[in-house]
Amino acid sequence: MPPKQRITREMILEKSFSMFCRDGMDAVNARSVAKALNCSTQPIFSYFSGMDDLKNALDQKARDAFEQALAEARGDSTIDNACAGYIRFAMEQPRLFAHMFLNINEGQAQVTMNAMLRTPVVEAECAQTGLSQEDAHGICEKMWIFAHGLAALQASGQSAFTPDQIWEMIAKTHESLRLSAQHSQEHTGA
User: Are residues 177 and 140 in the same domain?
Assistant: First the structure.
């Protein structure tokens, strides 16, 4: 009977994910993972068909971490909470954020914007403001653009706002957009 393998698939994933979070996806290769696990590359390739397979698993793990961060941020389905969760993820996981949302070739930012503009968020905006579905969607879209910019600044280290400062900026920007939409609606007679 062959000896039991001491390195598990989960150990490989966890160590690789840790490297991904700390140093970025480019730092994850068979040799670096094997070195970090103090083993040969053989266990990696016994659990994964190749590095693309491992990196796909890491991409999924990053998406799961992002979804969990958004779920934790949403006390309710408001755009403010979605924006705060998005920015918090960028602050806490800057390498994952950069890989997922600042990589020009991936298109993940568009997917995320679509997710943040799901019906419950837009409906919550309609209910809170009395605005039309179209106006509420427009506010949510502008809020996401604002959040994406602030998240990118935070993730890249170009700003260091505190969570309280971020929440205040989200609230003020949202209020400004609401007032503008309500003012426009009053003047068009809608």
Answer: yes
